[in-house]
Structure formats: C-alpha cells, structure tokens
Design brief:
The chain is an alpha+beta fold and 201 residues long. The protein has 2 domains: 2-80 and 190-197, Glutaredoxin (3-Layer(aba) Sandwich), CATH 3.40.30; 89-188, Glutathione S-transferase Yfyf (Class Pi), Chain A, domain 2 (Up-down Bundle). It has helices spanning 12-20, 66-76, 89-113, 119-139, 153-167, 176-186, 189-197, and strands at residues 2-5, 26-31, 36-37, 54-56, 62-63. Helix 1 (12-20) links the parallel strand 1 and strand 2. It is globular and about 40 Å long. The two termini are 24 Å apart. The model has no long low-confidence stretch (mean pLDDT 97).
Length: 201
C-alpha cells in the first residue's frame, strides 16, 4: 500500500488508522500548493481532485476519500478492531461518526484555511464548528473514545479536527471532554509514530 499525504492535513487520519490497524505501507509526501510529490511527480495525475489522502491499494485500485480509506484499512485487518464487523450496530455507528465529522466539522474548517474567504463567513464557520464541538463534548462524557473504551477509525478523524482547532486558536479548554479526548489520542504510540513520520511531533 502507498499513502499520499501532506503533513497535518486530513490525510493524518488514515495515516493513523493504517498504523493502528497494523498495516505496512509506503508514505509519499505531497506539496498541495505546487501539486507535486516530494519526488517531483505531478500529483494531479495521481488524483485529479488535487487533494490528499490517496491510498494505492495492494489490489491495484485507488481510494481518494479519508472515510473510505479508513474503512478499507479496518476491513483488511478485522482483528485490529479499528472498524467493527459488517452488519453490526457498531459498524453503522462508526459510519455515522465518520459522516458527521466529514460534513459537520471537516467541511466547516475548509473556509478557515482559505485566505480568500471573507471574514464574515469565517465567523459563521467558526460558530458552526464550536456548536458541533459542544455537542461532541457532551457525547464524550464518561467515554474514552467516541465508541466507548475502544479506539476506532473516527477517533483518528476527530483528533485531526482538534489539531486544526488549535491552528485556528480555538481553545479546547471550553470543551473539557473533547480536550481530554484529544490528549488521550495524542498519547497513543501509533499516533505518535504517525506524527513523527509527518514531522509534527
């Protein structure tokens, strides 16, 4: 397998999940501004969307969306438990969390990273993120992770969103359960491995 990533981008989520699931894979760094890999290849030829993550699978097909990649990674090693078994209630709950994080958090962060976004709209996006974080904070009460005591794929995704909150100077102290969750995930050995590999530790 080969994962194309940019340090600290949303590709950090599948990067973490691949490590948590025990997979061996190659990493290829991408410059998203230049649309070039570190070796100088045209990244648009690899993914016409021009975005990370991209996973080239051992079976010869490519996945270009984080939630699909993490489910693939979990299914390739069911014993890792990063994705529950097909047909179980927990499987659908994990998919629900992945969809929520994609649509309600990830997409609202997008405008904050674009310098062309009007300031008035950035305030709207920040308010939306804060409201969603407040709800997640309530859901995390009495839980170590989103699904309870077991780390699963959406935990990696939510962790990346908490890192982005820090970059946007959004104080996690106002959401103590979420802050504790972020620190708990950050301390996991495989997460530390991913951070070091991306030069973020």
């Amino acid at each position: 397998m080969k994962l194309y990533f940019a340090p600290g981008a949303c590709s950090l989520s599948p990067h973490i999940v691949l490590r948590e699931a025990g997979h061996k894979f190659d990493l290829v760094q991408v410059d998203l501004k230049e649309k070039k890999t570190k070796e100088g290849s045209d990244f648009n030829q690899i993914n016409g969307k021009g975005q990370v993550p991209v996973l080239e699978t051992d079976e010869g097909f490519t996945l270009t969306e984080g939630p699909a990649i993490v489910q693939y990674a979990g299914d390739k090693n069911p014993g890792s438990r990063v994705v529950p078994a097909p047909g179980t209630k927990e499987r659908y709950q994990v998919q629900e969390w992945l969809n929520f994080i994609t649509t309600e958090l990830h997409k609202n962060f997008g405008p904050l990273f674009r310098p062309t976004t009007p300031d008035a709209y950035k305030l709207i996006a920040r308010d939306a993120i804060a409201g969603r974080f407040r709800w997640v904070n309530e859901k995390l009460a009495g839980r170590q992770y989103l699904m309870g005591d077991t780390f699963t794929a959406p935990d990696a995704y939510l962790y990346v969103m908490t890192r982005w909150a820090g970059r946007m100077e959004m104080d996690l102290n106002q959401w103590p359960n979420l802050k504790a969750f972020s620190e708990r995930v950050a301390a996991r050995p495989k997460v530390q491995e991913a951070l070091k590999a991306e030069g973020l530790a």
